[in-house]
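Weekly modeling sync, notes
Attendees: AB, CL, MP (scribe)

Item 1: holo prediction request
CL wants a bound-state model with flavin mononucleotide before deciding which constructs to order. AB pointed out that an apo prediction alone won't tell us much about the pocket. Agreed to run with the ligand included and paste results into these notes for async review.

Input as submitted:
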Amino acid sequence: MNIIGIIASQRKEGNTAFIVNEILEGAKEQGAEVKAFSFNDLDIKPCRGCWACHKSDKGCVIKDDMQQIYDALEHADAIVLGLPIYMGQMSAQGKIITDRLFARFSPRFSPFFKENAVKQKLILSFNQGNPDADLFKVYTDYTKNMFEVLEFDVTEVPIVTDLRSEPACEREDLRTSLMDFGSALVSVK
Ligand SMILES: Cc1cc2nc3c(=O)[nH]c(=O)nc-3n(C[C@H](O)[C@H](O)[C@H](O)COP(=O)(O)O)c2cc1C
């Protein structure tokens, strides 16, 4: 099984990076091949709204590092998308990547939309400073639905909370539960 992680945060050693990497580690222990992409390492521009991706089979015409993610997506069985909550929504980095997934509706990715195509599994992983896991429930439910429209099989929406005072990497309770999400991803049918 081939799994990619996307860290939609500018902080290379931040909470989102820790969370995505721990989930991937759990999957790797179960034999999955994993690769993480950090937004901070990549030059990814916002969608131009040109619709060129819909007009040919070449996909998105912006030749930047999003092309690496498109290539990886084509070969991935599952994706772990790590989204920090900034101002009550996914980070701007997460939104830039999400908008670029508009190209997923294009002929280049059309096999995903054929009847009986196996959907890619997606763990939509949010993290936030606030301790209340239900605080942004309307938003996280809405976002889950949006990714289902993009033909992902959203298997889990873990919400890591209460990260104001202590970084995720110092939370003893987190490591095991994050790794369990990764290992479950490999065993989910
Ligand atoms: C600009 C900004 C806005 C934030 N807005 C919220 C928020 O609305 N609600 C919340 O619970 N936490 C908020 N936080 C806290 C982050 O969600 C939290 O620290 C997260 O784990 C950061 O992930 P990172 O280390 O990968 O950047 C915000 C942090 C920043 C920097």
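Recorded for review: The CA atoms of residues 76 and 173 lie 29 Å apart.
Action items: CL to compare against the apo run; MP to circulate these notes.
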